[in-house]
Amino acid sequence: MNNIVLLSEIHQIAPSLVNRAFPNAGVKFNALFQAINWYPFLFNPEDELWVMNSIHVDNTLDIIQSIAQRVAAKEMSLVIRDWPHLDFIGKPYLQHPTYQMSMQENLHTHFSLHEAFIVRHPIAQFLSMINSGSAHDYMKDETGVKHFLRGYRAFAEIAKDGNFIRYEDFISSPECIIEILAGQLNINFDPAYTERWKHYTNITGDTKRMASQEICRENYFVFEKVYKRFFVESADFKCAIELLGYEEDL
After folding, report:
1. Given this model, what pLDDT does residue 211 score?
2. Which pLDDT score, from 0 to 100, does residue 131 have?
3. Same domain, yes or no, for 247 and 123?
4. Residue 89 burial by CB count (10 A; 0-12/13-18/19+): exposed, middle or buried?
């Protein structure tokens, strides 16, 4: 990824929403904060005042454009991993998600985008979320499951009309899928990624699970019977797996 500048979990209002739930944590989701810390070569000493004034605010289009211009000047490619959780699940940051790709819609007005969607079986996605921290508190009952599945279906309805890649296919055939993904994003495929990916740290999320030195399928958490009933009785679940080509079971 020598010619790639990746920004991770970027959403227009992520910094302020995260700060509201977890004071002072929102800066990690500021695009400029990530860029100055991960890719300092993009900036000059005279940028210091602007950077200091901009890393504690939301991700405005001006900030994204300024980063994009610096990336282009270095003849590199900007890849933005957005944060659709805020648009389709929302909690604990938002109670009522919009069910729209707000970051995508915002960027479309000023950029020519090359897009790809990464999806995962809804049961596996759900189990990963409820076993990774605060999500358990708002997804552990039937109401929480219904909220999750409504958001998942809404995302699936958008993803099925675009370039989507199943996480499970990547695990089964990583080199093939990575090459496809690179093509969808209009970036060069690096055959040496098999040696380099494990050393890459410029990313946010559940990084503690990146300790493995190989690309492999994790052991899934136990899918309790009570949760299974919520899923199989859900019209949203049935629609989503049909849209994305999944079987009912993992």
Report:
1. 55
2. 84
3. yes
4. buried
